[in-house]
Every structure is written in structure tokens, then in C-alpha cells.
Automatic annotation (TrEMBL):
Lineage: Bacteria, Pseudomonadati, Bacteroidota, Sphingobacteriia, Sphingobacteriales
Lipid/polyisoprenoid-binding YceI-like domain mapped to chain residues: 40-221
Highest taxon of the lineage: Bacteria
Keywords assigned by UniProt, alphabetized: Signal
InterPro entries: Lipid/polyisoprenoid-bd_YceI, TTHA0802/YceI-like_sf
Residues making up the signal peptide according to the UniProt record: 1-25
Family matches, as SUPFAM superfamilies: YceI-like
Species in which this protein is naturally found: Pedobacter xixiisoli
Protein name per UniProt: Polyisoprenoid-binding protein YceI
Any Pfam family the entry gives: YceI
């Protein structure tokens, strides 16, 4: 099996400023993009999914859903990932109706709110972008990762609304001569991108948690 690491934008609300657990994506300032060389693999937008899960303070009233990817590619040379970039369609954000069980509340209402100015303001920022900056082997630690059996770390610049930060997270990647699959799950902090709705002041005043769990299921095919 060829060594490769593929990862997509963590997409959505994001990034923790240096959490102590592997569950949190490490976040730093924007970094230089990795040079793309070698063979190109295209994201299969029909089978690639980006899942998100958030909650009110204390884990109450969890909400979850998906967001789609417009397009993306990764490049591989000498059995190693050399770079890649991806566009995420923020207008495609959905809320799973199964996560909204309270009487009188609708998933479509929450979708509209998340797309509005309080959160992602998709009218002004219809896409998010992720550009790979670094790929390295994953070194296991005593703290368990949310990703099952990760074998690589991926770093990349995530642009959300008008902010760009670099995030690093574990991923499990499998490669064949014609395809790449990757899975990842980690926690991020939306306020790092200035998405501060209901997180003002000290933690006891927060209504909605800043932490969001991101799950990635990525499929890419050789061009």
C-alpha cells in the first residue's frame, strides 16, 4: 500500500487553540501551502461527507448534520501526498431532523440560522476553503484520538468567512492505485474563526458550546 495522507477541510465551525487532548484540532496561524506534485486524485463529491455535531452548554440538545463539498483534489508523488485543496459548499449545510426533537422546533429553522450572519453568513461567504500545508506520520500518545487507528496527521489552512487559520488533526488513510479514502473525527472551536454567537463572556454565560465535533469520510479517485 502506498503511503499517503489525504484530508479535507474540517469544514465548518472550528478549531481549538491548543487543547490538551488529541480530540482537539491543534490550531495555529496561516502557513505556507504545500507544493502540489505528481498524480492527481479528484474528490468524489457524491460519496464524500463532512459531518458536524454541536450542542448547548453541558452537552444538552445536541444537533448534527452534514455539509457538502463542491470540488477538490489531492496530489501524490512517489507514494506520498504532496498537497491539495478543497472547496466546501456552505449553502449545502443541513441539519438532521432526527436531532431536533423539541416540540415546535424545526431543522429547517436551524439551517436558516446557521447560514445567517450569526454563524456562517453564507450570503457573503458561500464557500469555505482548505489547503494542505503538511502531512506527517501520526505518533500515538497516551491520549486516545476520536479517529479510529489514525496513521497520519494532516495540517492545512482553513478559510471560513473572512478568517484563515491552520489546523492539524489525525486521520486514517487507505490508498489503492486508483483511489484514496480517509476518515477523521476531532473537536474544534468555532470562536477561533470569530463565530461567537452565544459564547460571549465567561463560560457560565454560554448558551451554545464553542466546541464542535467534525467527522470526515473522504473518497477520491484518480483523474
Amino acid at each position: 500500500m502506498r503511503k499517503l495522507l489525504f484530508a479535507l477541510p474540517a469544514l465548518f465551525l472550528l478549531a481549538s487553540c491548543g487543547g490538551s487532548s488529541n480530540n482537539n484540532a491543534e490550531t495555529t496561524t496561516e502557513q505556507a501551502a504545500a507544493e502540489q506534485k505528481g498524480e492527481s486524485f479528484a474528490i468524489d463529491t457524491l460519496t464524500t461527507s463532512v459531518d458536524w455535531k454541536g450542542a448547548h452548554k453541558g452537552g444538552l440538545a445536541p444537533r448534527w448534520g452534514k455539509i457538502g463539498v463542491n470540488l477538490g483534489t489531492v496530489s501524490v508523488a512517489k507514494d506520498s501526498l504532496t498537497g491539495g485543496e478543497f472547496l466546501i459548499n456552505m449553502n449545502s449545510l443541513t441539519v438532521d431532523p432526527a436531532s431536533v426533537t423539541e416540540e415546535g422546533k424545526k431543522a429547517t429553522d436551524l439551517e436558516g440560522h446557521l447560514k445567517g450572519a450569526d454563524f456562517f453568513d453564507v450570503a457573503k461567504a458561500p464557500t469555505a476553503k482548505f489547503v494542505i500545508t503538511k502531512v506527517e506520520p501520526y505518533a500515538a500518545t497516551k491520549e486516545a484520538s476520536l479517529t479510529a487507528d489514525p496513521n497520519y496527521l494532516i495540517s492545512g489552512n482553513l478559510t471560513l468567512k473572512d478568517s484563515t487559520l491552520n489546523v492539524t488533526f489525525p486521520a486514517k488513510v487507505q490508498v489503492t492505485p486508483t483511489s484514496v479514502t480517509a476518515t477523521a473525527k476531532f473537536v474544534i472551536d468555532r470562536s477561533a474563526w470569530g463565530i461567537n454567537y452565544k459564547t460571549e463572556g465567561s463560560p457560565e454565560n454560554w448558551m451554545i458550546s464553542k466546541d464542535v465535533e467534525i467527522g470526515l469520510t473522504i473518497n477520491a479517485k484518480k483523474n
